[in-house]
Amino acid sequence: MLHSTVSPSLPTSKAEQEDSQEGSQEINDVAFLDTVMDQMLQQGLVDRRRVYVTGFSNGAAMTFQYAARRSHRLAAIAPVAGYCRGTLPPSTHPVPTLYLIGDADPLVPLHGGQVPSPWEGRLVRRPPVAESLERWATWLGCSPIPRLIEDTPLYRREIYPGTVTFEVLIVKGLGHHWPGGRGGWSARIAGPHHTHLNATDMIWHFFRQHSIPEVATGA
Known about the structure:
The protein contains five helices and eight strands.
């Protein structure tokens, strides 16, 4: 099995925060990711049946949007601590999804509310995360009502029942950080950080369980 990872280090959008839509007409994230994927496929670096996308914060929103528009290219996705924004086209190929977020995230709060934006210097309204998850569950053809299947000292796991896997992992005591990561932002801005749970390992375990059926692959 070919293992290769692409991690763009520069933002593909001029939007500095998730609420901003500025620059969206000039920068096409979907086209950019298409180009990256095409180049890797042409170079024989990846198995086209095992292409996955994950992203944190703005990258989570990008992950949702790319999956909605290029679902036939993806075996699974794992958005982390971000919203499902924008218009979703009709679903033709539901994509197995693992979503992760901390329950102490002050920038993408589970229950929504007024949030002090570190980018804008003012309060902005954030919607409940459940609204994004319900939208995505509906797009996948799953029930919009989650079911709790596991509650541990480290996390709470929920699923949205349906014919395609949609799991949600809520990490306890974690702010706006990649679970298990270094926590590059201060607690004052992003909330508490800990490394009790490794999202990278959990996401890779999830990805390994999914591949695109041979008849469904396409460029």
